[in-house]
Amino acid sequence: MDKNMKILIVDDFSTMRRIIKNLLRDLGFTNTTEADDGQTALPVLKSGSFDFLITDWNMPGMTGIELLKAVREDPNLNSLPVLMVTAEAKKDQIIEAAQAGVNGYVVKPFTATVLQEKIEKIFERIEGS
Amino acid sequence: MSETTNQLAGNDDPNDSKSEIMAHAKAMVENLERGDSHEAFKVLEDLNKARDRTLFSEVGRLTRSLHSAITEFHIDIEMNQESQKEISRISDASDRLNYVINLTEDAANKTMDKVEEAIPAANMIQTTAEELKPEWESVLKGEVDPDQFRELHKKMGAFIDSTIVSSQGLGTNLSDILLAQDYQDLTGQVIKRVIQLVQEIEGSLVELVKTASSVEELAGIEKAQQVGKDSIEAEGPIINKEERVDVVSGQDDVDDLLSSLGF
Q1: What is the complex's ipTM, to 2 decimals?
Q2: Which residues on B lie below 8 Å from A89 (Cβ)?
């Protein structure tokens, strides 16, 4: 796993973006960018070569699930690994995210260990395939 | 129309209208049996009027409760007499909740500032101690000559001095973090007031729904079937996980569900 990979963190709450950014830094990932919803995230993703997307679900403007679907529909972005970090905990939602092609799903509140495990698992699978 | 309005004022009792309908119905049957269809139609017309009157009275009642529900949404005017403005309690509640968002955001940021400040100091203590540990262990093993010992003695002194300074800083940061939690008391009070308002509004709305449904019943309007809620709509944090079967109870559940889907 490349510790210099470019990561986009999308959440409408700046404190949550900051927490995720700090946790990522503790894990050795320092190349992070932030966006506050899907609408602002999508152009950022299209303009830069990001290696990983971490997104919330419930956001104004464009939600995380819509962002995930847009990413999967975009031929330049469709293989981007996406981790959902959200308070949305309905089984139907998790199934929908899985069907939309999410690579991992973390429910809030979460721990640093869970975040680390899910990121490692995502990249293990990508590197193994 | 004014006649109707006057009539309905004293006709709020549904039992009155029932007996009125009954009387009309009997009269109509009698007329029909006599073969007097002209008279029967007249009675039918009266019957329709009676139905309309009840409907009007219910609409009147609905309008009155709607009006009182709306006025109850307003904050006490006496409190704002200087400004002569009626501030809606709803927008007041929104302001209060925004205040909660601001307070909690500030507290979260303050806490994270202090943590970010403390991390380098804590790391410094750890790395210096780890560096000194093997040297200190060689002293205990008697592997150090006097010159090396003097050097180590100096390093040890510097480490102790810097540890005193850093740990004082860490202590300050920790108590700042503690103090940053004072928002809970304030936000708790604000949220309690908003809950109270929401409950009052719910009470008024329930009354309104009751009145509206009796009008619907009289007017023969069928209630629209409740459309199933879109399960995919974002809901935010689930606060009653124990009572719900459609939600996961934690990360382990998420992992189980995903692995059942082949993840």
Answers
A1: 0.81
A2: 237-238, 241, 247-248, 254
